[in-house]
Amino acid sequence: MVFMQSYCEANSSISHTWVDEGISPCFYFTLVPTILLTIAFFLGTIHFIFYQKYGTAMEPKFIPRSRLYGFQQAISILLLVQSLGGMVWRAASGGELPGYVVLYGCFSVGGWVWAIAVLRVERRRVLVMDRTRGHSAALLLFWAVAFSAENLAFVSWYSPHWWWSLETIQQQVQFALWLMRYMGTGLLFFIGLKAPGLPRRPYMLLINEDERDVENSGQSLLGRTEDNPSTWHGFRRKVRLLVPYMWPRNNIILQLLVIFCLGLLGVERAINVFVPIFYKNIVNELTDGSSWRTLATTVCLYVLLKFLQGGGAGASGFVSNMRSFLWIRVQQYTNRVVQVRLFSHLHSLSLRWHLGRKTGDVLRSIDRGTSSINSLLSYIVFSIFPTIADIVISIIYFITYFNAWFGLIIFVCMALYLTLTIIITEWRAKYRRDMNLQDNNAKTKAVDSLLNFETVKYYNAENYEVGRFEDAILKYQESEWKTQASLAFLNQTQNLIIGSGLLAGSLLCAYFVTEGRFQVGDFVLFGTYIIQLYTPLNWFGTYYRMIQNSFIDMESMFKLFEEDEEVKDEVNAGNLLYKLGKLEFENVYFSYTNGKEILNDVSFTVLPGQTLALVGPSGSGKSTIVRLIFRFYDVQGGCIRIDGQDISKVKQVSLRAHIGVVPQDTVLFNDTIQNNIRYGRISASDQEVEEAAIAADIHDKIMTFPEGYDTQVGERGLKLSGGEKQRVAIARTILKAPQIILLDEATSALDTQTERNIQASLAKVCSNRTTVVVAHRLSTIIGADQILVISDGRIAERGRHDELLLKGGLYADMWMNQQQAQDSDSSSESESKDRKSEKLQPPSTSSGDHGH
Asked: b vs e for 330-340, b when ≥16 Cβ sit within 10 Å of the residue's Cβ?
């Protein structure tokens, strides 16, 4: 017959917490379920009230389907059943049934029932004001405490009252139940950090995106926004992107430096162990009256180790300084490679992306991203890993040379510290991300305003621009305050945990010293070691935050790396074999966006050395044809050939080497005029640059400047007039000496006389070269071999100037309108001159009007 004799087992009391080198089972199985039930009941009740009062039921379409969520539920139910089953098995096995077994079974069942209920509520309801994702703190804390409690069993490894020996069937069953609890609670905690059954993004964001137009959803500083509530989202992908920059390939010296630095890192860990031990030996030798020679040797060794270690945790020691010094080259390699590859990647992106970019955002993303890579590698390799190693070594050391209580104190403090640090830091990540967004907005407004300085002045909008910038700064400071306030809260939490652990360990060690079980040196050893350990642990939170901030700062840079190249060379693409310069468009279709065709079935041929002119109203597709020839975009249908070769099958570099372009809007580098012209061919001599300037009819104008060819043109060439910039662009193209020339309204910004001079120069340059001209003034293309009239993306008319006039179609109408406008301008100009001459003539007088 099974009966309950007492609450604890025979010869045991709940007041005896430590029995035979282990925790008393009665104490353990009373404390653990009580804490779990308390957390589940009180926090769970608060959770239920808040979700029922302030929450709303989620729409089924927003609830993710997840097998891991079902796995969570299954594990929770299994742990509930094993709690009840363990009690039933103990009762059915015969013999004594202690009261703590019944309490453990009942309280554990109650706790897991509440946990399952909270899990189901979070699955179906949501707090609409909650901007974060993931499980509530109540559920995460319950799983964390449950998992930590099962780890406490290791402290009783040598106790005969536990099941580790596995000698009896009862011990084997208890071990199996403990193994089930250990694995179950561990899985629940780590799966809970991912929260598979809950939406990956805040519920309000999902609702807003669902109501938003699909075409406008997902815009960000780089062309799309996506909310990554967790910094560790896509961690593997980020690490894979970083790995090539961590290991210096093809550089044996840097590789040896990396290995040597890692070796120094291991030396630091060993030194951190021996410094407190030698300090303890000094104290013991002083109290025991050891010989001077022995004491002096110990002191010298201690000072040597302290010199190597530095300030407490290798902060400024010889080994640490040496490692930091040797790591500089590796760090510079990483920084250089990342910046160069990113800069190269940006230049490889399509014109479409560059037309839609925000320059201020991109520059800030590059700046923050590249600087954060160095700190990320340093924190992970030289801070996080060493700190974790120090924690593991300290736990093993204290359990081995002191007793399990000290290992338990350190383990509990570390577990609580790391868990709360991760949870709070993840919670405050949204503030850091919002601060970055507001920072980008402020810098973007400043850059845009300065780039459009003239427009601001034209409309007296200085106060408006300053006000916009101030509003952006205020929003940034509001986000910054939230970031700093949450950081202060995290620091206070960490200090509380560290202080509590230091107090508990110091009191216990002092008690053992007074009992004569420890020496005074052991107390010194504990204090020295624990302070030495808490120093990097205190920085661990900072390291974690900095790593998280680095990942957040790099998110925008990673998005830049992820931008696909729209125009790519094929794998086996060859060089363009230029022969004569025959250009062909065959049934070309093209559109910038789906549903709006810019070119529709365009076909034409330009024979070698001929000039093709493209005319038509604005937006008809003339400039698009020029961009397609230069392969800024790939066509959606049809084919473009040069000398019979499809330009999409050849390398872009070889194609563009044979083509010279004078664009409609010329933007110059903030450099000298000479260097801007030399950009057409970097290797050109000064004499060749001047010859190109003479051909472009700008040499004489340049010589009137005080600094001549060394004149700075300013940001985007703003110090030059529109005509001067255009002539610099023409000189640049003349210097390149391409076989195919594309002129996109190259003389649109020039006066009539300069235009005639430039036309004569261009005629010489374009002779015997295939030329495509986009023209607005029809008088400039009278001598073209072929004229195409583009209208609504189609070729409406084609032929020479005289032929098109005889047809009396669109070209003839355009010619007539321009002639009338020119005649009107000429008559207006002559009338103005007549009025001016009349005003300059003296008034006529008669002889009778003269007086004597």
From this structure: beebbbebbbe
